[in-house]
Amino acid sequence: MSERALITGVAGFVGSHLAEYLLGRGLEVYGLKRKEDGIDNIRSIKEDLTLISGDMNDYGSLKKALKKAEPDYIYHLAAQAHVPTSWKTPADTMEVNAIGTIFLLEAVRSYGCDPRIQIAGSSEEYGLIHPGELPVRETNQLRPLSPYGVSKVAQDLIGWQYYKSYGLKTVRTRAFNHTGPRSGVGFVASNFANQIAEIEKGVNEPVMHVGNLEAQRDFLDVRDVVRAYHMSLSSCDFGEAYNICAEKPRTIQSVLDILLSLSSRRDIRVETDPERMRPLDIPVIYGSCEKFSKKTGWKPQIPFEKTMRDLLFYWRGK
């Protein structure tokens, strides 16, 4: 009998890639999806999935989802995942990310099933990084600098608390920046690729609007990340937190340079847009995934240049 997985946020960027990956490994995949969410990201695999209508803030729908899926594994990806949006709607961000996680774990307790549960955290939990604290390890103090980061710290610690208090088999992952096909325009690399595709198409003038290009971030391909998520529930210790990262910083300028080099246009100029600047921005973040790699053997496999090429191709198709 096939193992069964429930993915919250299955119709999202990461959820759709994870569903593809798990289906390719022979798992029976159930996906929690809000009624208002589109199916563009999962259109090609829709017939292979069992979609369940539900919402992270609807406790009853989560219990029904568990009853239908009877999962061996839960991948909790549903979230308000956009940092700039969190500044505009901090209460909604906290409600979805933190309270929604409580509802999910309470539903697991109430229903009485015993799945392994991955809690998808973020490098934004670390926030303020002091000199001498790089690369960021799981032992770093959590000093989030955005409402989104605060909500993910809450979600992360809720996962730990439910393991300690009730024995739920949670694993907390803290993925650093990840991108690839289907990433939304609210995320920097995807935003750049979308702008270039529109310029190539003649929709916009050859001007790129950018924010802080000096920031340095640790970038991964989403397809490497979902492979890591699957491995986390196979090999990692319950209750523990694990970084998932490339272990090297890359400037936002370098991301832009790669995408521009892939463009058919050579007349694109770059202009800084003050509206694209964050109220607080961390100059450099990159992590260590030594703890995770020792447990699982995982390492990134997809070259960043391929990630950027695939991302630009995706937006050209849109």
Furnish the topology, listing elements before pairings.
Blueprint: E1 4-8, H1 13-24, E2 28-33, E3 50-53, H2 59-69, E4 73-76, H3 83-88, H4 90-111, E5 116-122, H5 147-166, E6 169-175, E7 178-179, H6 188-201, E8 207-210, E9 216-217, E10 220-221, H7 222-235, E11 241-244, E12 250-251, H8 252-262, E13 269-272, H9 290-296, H10 304-317
Helix pairs in contact: 1-7, 2-4, 4-5, 6-8, 6-10, 8-10
Structure, explained:
The structure is a single chain. With 318 residues, the protein is of the alpha/beta class. The protein has two domains: 4-179 and 221-247 and 287-296, Rossmann fold (3-Layer(aba) Sandwich), CATH 3.40.50; 188-216 and 249-286 and 304-317, UDP-galactose 4-epimerase, domain 1 (Alpha-Beta Complex), CATH 3.90.25. It is 41% helix and 17% strand. It is built from ten helices and 13 strands. It has helices at 13-24, 59-69, 83-88, 90-111, 147-166, 188-201, 222-235, 252-262, 290-296, 304-317; strands at 4-8, 28-33, 50-53, 73-76, 116-122, 169-175, 178-179, 207-210, 216-217, 220-221, 241-244, 250-251, 269-272. The strands form four sheets. The chain has a seven-stranded parallel beta sheet with strand order 3-2-1-4-5-6-11, sandwiched between helices. Helix 1 (13-24) links the parallel strand 1 (4-8) and strand 2. Helix 1 crosses helix 7 and helix 8 crosses helix 10. The radius of gyration is 19 Å and the shape is globular. The protein starts with a strand and ends with a helix. The model has no long low-confidence stretch (mean pLDDT 96).
